[in-house]
């Protein structure tokens, strides 16, 4: 069927900020939707609160709204834009839920908006557990036995009937939030209670446990003619019990016989036909490996994390095709790489794909490293190999966790077998590495299977790797035979890992194997639905089958897996670099290993190498393609970490040189330059022993900011107030050595932090905007809210910041992007750090100020001068407030505080004509709906008491009732502010926790008590999160909130598109 | 393969002299045959036991094989018909609750050779460009020149009557394992010629209420009609149809007297019986993902295929014979039908094991044809 002519304008709702369970895979799918629908000639109205996405680039859609994702805002946009259609299934669970709410609210009908792709009732059939169960019963497809409960008591009765363990699943939540497996009535009460409170409709499902069953997923696509194809069969190697987002998995299925695959496919087709989805659907099954019983677990009638993975694993762009199908096309109108059209697509290929998740447990002290039905991963990598072993080992080095192979992780190899087996009793992020050491210690394949439910095939493969590794280890200190080296490379052992095993340099292994002719070769993944795509993976198990052109080429290194501190913002920059290079006439080569990204979409670059970002893999591609250079600046810390070694191996690095990177990162050299330039820096020192640290502290005085060297996202960064804390920090610090010392800075108390992103050409620099952090110094810049333009930094300091930035960029010969962080303390501007690379704020500045920073920087790297670009300082008449979004709801046991170590996973942007409204919107976008009236709880640390008076006064003026704890209450009374006292939990009942649970409090302002109160008041914040009460943990944010509430009460700004905001910039 | 295990070298040499070194699994020894590739990602057990592969050495393009072992229920026939199995990497242990043997043990028990550790992609690409060719595989003779001579000396597929070798000597009633006869319909009796019939085809007939009596390839029309069946089935089978002209002759005698349905080799025999000719394809169709267009509906079916020969459309009298299905990859004939008489056939495997079930309507159609012809 041809394109639909009855619609012209289509609205797409994105998935909002990056959170656990909803990451940049929805930027990927949303961007594909924009591409597909625009190609069909439709106008696009796009809504997303996340500014770091490619989809919210003003050029991707005709009208772009960076607005909070909630029903009221969506209604306003629908009424303003009057789209003809709404595409609900490309923006993750958030987009789907919002579309569904919009439909129920009646506004779609009112404005004559049709839903395309998945109908509202289809969403119900797929998402509502009761409706879904009825459909399955009708189709004769089994589900795990289960019943719905609306109260904890009901849940208890059901669990008793089913028998423990049972699984609790809250309806309509993301990444399994609030659910879990319970083994007894006590756990059931806790988890069911939590689940009921997080479920949109106060409903949980109590379900028979299928723990230990195989978890199998299919990605199917259906069109309006009821033609159905299976894009991918995914085998979750981790059995049922581990969330699919955390599961290690392979595609295609490796241990599932064809009879079972056929059965799953038949069930899947029956299901999507019954649900009537147009587009892609993910279907999850559990298969009992001892009886063959198959049950369906759930379906996602939309693009998903799995569909992104399946798209990258097969070369079939599910989101793109789903969008075309929603636009009225059918599969027989879309080309298939093999021949003809897509209705005859079947999975094929002669390679293996592995997905490995990346976690951030180390960021959340107190969080238990345990995998269950609630997703914990913050990112993932995908790897492709000719054999399972090769793909597996590639995935390890793709993860960038300092491991290049499976062995010798942490101290596992020193532990006795019993300890290792005990540690394997429940699934953790270290499971594969523990199994490896257990095998080395003689664990049996069957024993490990019984512990982990990981199928023997995978364990046996691992065992063979261990055996080969043991043979290699025997050669330490003597020559490794050619045969052994060849086998090791064919089985995927990394050069770096072999070098570590044998005590050699990586380059020695590299030279040795090259002499033997053992080099990486490449093969193509055929791509459907997109023309001229070139998508490759490397292998040591075959000859090179990829041709290279003699065009001028540039390689762009991506950012690898998402993690806290390095995520979608860097992918945004890489994508822009690729687009800019293409426009400049270069052939672009992208290297990355993150399947969720737009950078790994097949048509972002001319050639995509889906490869780990290691010296071995990047160098091999470089030597094959012979580009004029490599861009390392856009992928975050990942490419910078290998830039030095690449250059040493003869690679040309474009943009900031390795020397510049080193100047910025080497504290002594950097300090020297700052002194020369006359730019003040907080006093500092370095220490690799406790004595040295105490000596530095004695010299510069407390408080101090301490951290390890060479880290991103403020990993293990802390503010230290006295000697006792410093002693504790040094004692706990791992891997400290003279090469990797602890960095110690004077901590500037009550300083305002500001940040500047610059574009530099080596002799000059341009600073489009200065950003002001809302939270004061001591909160990581990635976690602090920030505003453009600044609201409290005096113009003279802004000028100073711009001047310093230009000086530094010129002195360091920065070519491309640079980010500098400043602190303003006692009327003086200090520099904190400079990074000669793209920063997290590049997309933010680009969108608020309407300047394509990454593109301009790329043009400069390729030889243009700033003077060629005609950039002018322009006046931004609106305010943009960025707010960070935290995964604390996924780590209920962790104190939800912000500090120098970054812990946010994503961000939102609030745009408005006043700071107050922009701040209000940013909170709204972060799902922290500030109340405009009601009761505010104020309980602050002694240090903050005096500033809290101003906060309280403002809230009182706004007519809020104020409740406060003893000390705060007393102080506020002294200042004549009316408050009601409230008890802390330690003081009796009814107390703060009761009040929050009873919904007597609408906003919590609670600044932590520092080291004395650290454990005392965490429950306040934790309870607030659990009961979804907005909470604020710094005084400065509280003041901003008061301003926001005041502005909001004066009036709503209405919704305005990014294009409208940009038109106002002069 | 566990690193501690002793690996026995094996050598495969094609008739053009191209050699592939690997390691032996399954039985040791020496064998020759036509080397063909299969692109299915799973289903190795069904492929090995498919009689159509008699006389052939099968290369799997998917690199990892043997992962879920072998069970006795999923075999297509009583034994392995492929001469040898050529793969990239063998799983040393089976990982499935249904598995009864490892692939290697199973091949040993069947006396069939296997070779692993070679670049099956390279071998496949070679066959794709050069066409199917004979090869010799050995663990005893590792001299490429001598093995090439052995490959050249082996009989060519064209002209060989392989069906005769895989067919049975005495007729038997088929005993189903998977399906039961439906109770709501009258049971029809089918005489099924066995040129190397796959068990799954017979199972599918049972599912449609048809009980097959399986008869040898040499059965004459008179002998067959004396059984008074409701319909005749021409099975799949290995190799070249032309030497089976003695069957085509018998089929021609039965045209119009009884409904006839053919699959694969049976389709080619139908082509010969319709007065057509067959020819050898360059590298044949082997795999579970061949797109075929049904000319009547325009719908594309994903089909499972396994054949090296093909019916020549130009040799058919199109006023009497209609081409019903076309292969979209190379436009070859995939299905034919007599315009007046109750006889039709398809080149692909509608019973699809392994493979997709897009074409499962053909068995019900056979039943309808029979019922219609009886009036």
Q: What is the gist of this entry?
A:
Chain A is an alpha/beta fold. Helix content of chain A is 37%, strand content 19%. In chain A, helix 7 (152-162) packs across helix 8.
The CATH level-2 architecture of the largest domain in chain B is identified as 3-Layer(aba) Sandwich
Secondary-structure content class of chain B:
alpha/beta
What does the average pLDDT of chain A come to?
92
Q: Which two protein chains have the largest interface (Cβ within 8 Å of the partner's Cβ), and how many residues from each? A: A-B, 50 and 46 residues
Q: Major sheet of chain B, described briefly?
A: 10 strands, mixed
What share of residues are in beta strands of chain B?
Answer: 25-35%
Helix content of chain B: 10-25%
What is the global morphology of chain A? Answer: globular
Q: Count every beta strand of chain A, where a strand is a DSSP E run of 2 or more residues.
A: 39
**How do the strands of the widest beta sheet of chain A line up side by side?**
14-13-10-11-12-15-16
Radius of gyration of chain B: 20 Å
Continuous helix count of chain B? 10
How many helical stretches of chain A?
38
- What proportion strand of chain A? 15-25%
Estimate nothing, just give the exact number of structural domains of chain B: 2
Residue ranges of chain B: pLDDT <50 for 5 or more in a row? none
Q: Order of helices and strands of chain B, N to C?
A: EEEHEEEEHEHEHHEEHEHEHEHEEEEEH
């Amino acid at each position: 069927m041809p394109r639909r002519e009855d619609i012209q304008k289509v609205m797409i709702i994105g998935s909002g900020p990056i959170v656990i369970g909803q990451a940049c895979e929805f930027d990927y799918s949303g961007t594909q939707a924009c591409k597909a629908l625009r190609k069909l000639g439709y106008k696009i109205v796009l809504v997303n609160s996340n500014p770091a996405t490619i989809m919210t680039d003003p050029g991707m859609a005709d009208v772009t709204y960076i607005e909070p994702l909630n029903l009221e805002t969506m209604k306003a946009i629908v009424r303003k834009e009057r789209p003809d259609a709404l595409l609900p299934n490309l923006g993750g669970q958030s987009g789907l839920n919002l579309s569904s709410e919009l439909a129920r609210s009646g506004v779609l009908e009112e404005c004559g908006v049709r839903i395309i792709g998945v109908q509202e009732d289809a969403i119900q059939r797929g998402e509502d557990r009761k409706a879904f169960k009825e459909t399955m019963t009708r189709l004769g497809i089994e589900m795990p036995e289960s019943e719905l409960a609306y109260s904890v008591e009901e849940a208890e009765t059901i669990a008793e009937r089913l028998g423990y363990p049972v699984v609790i699943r809250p309806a309509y939540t993301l990444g399994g939030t609030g659910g879990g497996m319970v083994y007894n009535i006590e756990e059931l009460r806790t988890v069911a209670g939590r689940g009921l409170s997080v479920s949109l409709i106060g409903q949980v499902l109590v379900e028979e446990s299928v723990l230990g069953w195989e978890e199998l997923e299919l990605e199917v696509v259906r069109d309006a003619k009821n033609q159905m194809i299976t894009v991918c069969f995914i085998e979750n190697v981790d059995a049922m019990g581990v969330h699919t987002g955390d599961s290690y998995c392979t595609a295609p299925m490796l241990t599932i016989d064809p009879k079972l695959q056929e059965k799953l496919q038949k069930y899947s087709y029956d299901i999507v036909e019954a649900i009537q989805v147009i587009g892609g659907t993910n279907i999850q099954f559990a298969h009992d490996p001892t009886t063959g019983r198959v049950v369906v677990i759930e379906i996602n009638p939309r693009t998903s994390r799995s569909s992104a993975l399946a798209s990258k694993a097969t070369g079939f762009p599910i989101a793109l095709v789903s969008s075309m199908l929603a636009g009225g096309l059918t599969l027989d109108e879309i080309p298939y790489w093999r021949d003809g059209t897509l209705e005859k697509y079947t999975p094929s290929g002669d390679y293996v794909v592995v997905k490995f998740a990346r976690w951030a447990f180390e960021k959340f002290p107190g969080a238990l490293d345990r995998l269950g039905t609630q997703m914990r991963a913050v990112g993932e990598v995908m790897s492709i190999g000719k054999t399972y072993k090769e793909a597996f080992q590639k995935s390890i080095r793709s993860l960038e966790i300092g491991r290049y192979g499976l062995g010798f992780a942490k101290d596992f190899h020193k532990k006795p077998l019993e300890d290792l087996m005990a540690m394997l009793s429940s699934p953790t992020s270290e499971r594969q590495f523990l199994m490896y050491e257990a095998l080395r210690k003689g664990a049996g394949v069957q024993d490990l299977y019984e512990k982990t439910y990981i199928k023997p095939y995978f364990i046996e493969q691992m065992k063979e790797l261990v055996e080969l590794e043991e043979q290699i280890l025997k050669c330490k200190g003597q020559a490794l035979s050619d045969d052994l080296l060849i086998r090791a490379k064919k089985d995927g052992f990394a050069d770096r890992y072999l070098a570590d095993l044998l005590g050699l340099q990586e380059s020695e292994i590299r030279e040795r194997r090259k002499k033997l002719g053992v080099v990486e070769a490449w093969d193509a993944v055929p791509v459907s639905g997109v023309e001229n795509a070139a998508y490759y993976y490397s292998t040591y198990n075959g000859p090179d089958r990829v041709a290279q052109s003699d065009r001028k080429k540039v390689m762009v290194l991506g950012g690898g897996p998402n993690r806290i501190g390095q995520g979608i913002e860097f992918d945004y920059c890489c994508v822009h670099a690729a687009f800019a290079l293409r426009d400049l006439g270069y052939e672009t080569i992208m290297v990355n290993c993150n399947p969720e990204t737009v950078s790994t979409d097949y048509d972002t670059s001319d050639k995509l190498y889906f490869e780990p970002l290691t010296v071995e893999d990047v160098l091999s591609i470089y030597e094959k393609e012979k580009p004029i250079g490599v861009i390392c600046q856009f992928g975050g810390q990942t490419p910078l970490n290998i830039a030095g070694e690449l250059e040493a191996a003869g690679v040309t690095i474009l943009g900031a040189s390795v020397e510049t990177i080193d100047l910025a990162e080497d504290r002594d050299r950097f300090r020297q330059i700052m002194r020369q330039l006359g730019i003040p820096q907080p006093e500092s020192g370095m220490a690799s022993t406790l004595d040295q640290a105490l000596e530095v502290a004695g010299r510069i005085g407390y408080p101090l900011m301490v951290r390890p060297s060479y880290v991103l996202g403020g990993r293990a960064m802390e503010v230290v107030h006295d000697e006792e804390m410093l002693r504790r920090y040094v004692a706990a610090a791992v891997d400290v050595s003279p090469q990797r010392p602890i960095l110690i800075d004077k901590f500037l108390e009550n300083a305002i932090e500001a940040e500047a992103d610059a574009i530099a050409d080596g002799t000059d620099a341009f600073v489009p905007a200065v950003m002001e952090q809302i939270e004061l110094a001591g909160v990581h810049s990635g976690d602090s809210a920030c505003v453009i333009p600044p609201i409290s930094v005096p113009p003279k300091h802004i000028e100073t910041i711009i001047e310093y930035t230009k000086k530094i960029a010129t002195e360091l010969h920065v070519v491309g992007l640079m980010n500098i962080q400043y602190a303003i303390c006692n009327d003086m501007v200090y520099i904190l750090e400079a990074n000669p690379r793209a920063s997290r704020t590049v997309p933010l500045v680009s969108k608020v100020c309407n300047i394509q920073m990454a593109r301009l920087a790329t043009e400069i790297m390729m030889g243009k001068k700033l003077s060629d670009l005609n950039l002018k300082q322009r006046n931004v008449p609106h305010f943009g407030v960025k707010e960070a979004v935290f995964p604390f709801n996924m780590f209920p046991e962790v104190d939800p505080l912000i500090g120098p170590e970054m812990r946010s996973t994503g961000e939102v942007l609030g745009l408005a004509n006043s700071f107050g409204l922009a701040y209000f919107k940013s909170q709204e976008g972060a799902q922290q709906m500030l109340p405009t009236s009601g009761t505010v709880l104020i309980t602050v640390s002694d240090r903050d008491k005096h500033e809290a008076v101003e906060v309280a006064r403002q809230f009182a003026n706004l007519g809020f009732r104020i409740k406060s704890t003893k000390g705060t209450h007393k102080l506020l009374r002294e200042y004549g502010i009316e408050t009601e006292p409230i008890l802390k939990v330690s003081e009796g009942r009814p107390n703060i926790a009761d009040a929050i649970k009873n919904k007597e409090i609408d906003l919590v302002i609670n600044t932590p008590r520092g080291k004395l109160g650290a454990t005392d008041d965490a429950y306040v914040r934790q309870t607030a999160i659990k009961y979804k009460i907005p909470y604020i943990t710094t005084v400065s944010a509280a003041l901003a909130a008061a301003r926001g509430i005041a502005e909001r009460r004066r009036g709503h700004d209405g919704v305005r598109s990014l294009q409208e905001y940009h038109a106002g910039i002069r | 393969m566990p690193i501690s295990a002793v690996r026995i070298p094996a050598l495969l040499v094609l008739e053009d002299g191209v050699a592939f070194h690997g390691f032996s699994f399954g039985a040791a020894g020496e064998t020759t045959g036509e080397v063909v590739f299969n692109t299915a990602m799973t289903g190795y057990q069904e492929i090995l036991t498919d009689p159509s592969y008699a006389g052939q050495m099968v290369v799997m393009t998917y690199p990892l094989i043997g992962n879920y072992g072998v069970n006795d229920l999923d075999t297509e026939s009583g034994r392995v018909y492929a001469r040898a199995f050529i793969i990239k990497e063998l799983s040393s242990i089976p990982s499935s609750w249904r598995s009864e043997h490892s692939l290697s043990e199973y091949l040993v028990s069947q006396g069939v050779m296997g070779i692993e550790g070679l670049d099956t992609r390279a071998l496949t690409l070679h066959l794709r460009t050069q066409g199917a060719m004979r090869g010799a595989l050995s663990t005893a003779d590792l001299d490429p020149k001598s093995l090439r001579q052995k490959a050249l000396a082996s009989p060519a597929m064209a002209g060989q009557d392989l069906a005769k070798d895989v067919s049975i000597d005495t007729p038997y009633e088929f005993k189903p394992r998977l399906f039961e006869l439906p109770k709501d319909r009258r049971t029809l009796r089918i005489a099924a010629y066995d040129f190397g019939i796959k068990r799954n085809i017979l199972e599918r007939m049972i599912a449609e209420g048809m009980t097959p009596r399986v008869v040898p390839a040499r059965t004459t029309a008179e002998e067959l009609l004396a059984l008074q069946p409701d319909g005749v089935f021409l099975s799949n089978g290995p190799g070249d149809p032309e030497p089976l002209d003695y069957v085509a002759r018998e089929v021609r005698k039965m045209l119009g007297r009884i409904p006839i349905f053919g699959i694969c080799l049976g389709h080619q025999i139908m082509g010969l019986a319709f007065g057509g000719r067959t020819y050898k394809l360059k590298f044949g169709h082997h795999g579970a993902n061949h797109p075929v267009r049904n000319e009547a509906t325009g719908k594309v079916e994903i089909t499972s295929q396994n054949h090296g020969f093909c019916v020549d459309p130009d040799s058919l009298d199109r006023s009497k014979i209609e081409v019903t299905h076309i292969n979209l990859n190379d436009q070859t004939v995939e299905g034919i039908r007599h315009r007046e008489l109750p006889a039709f056939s398809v080149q692909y495997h509608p019973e699809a094991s392994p493979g997709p079930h897009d074409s499962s309507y053909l068995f019900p159609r056979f039943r309808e044809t029979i019922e219609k012809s009886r009036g």
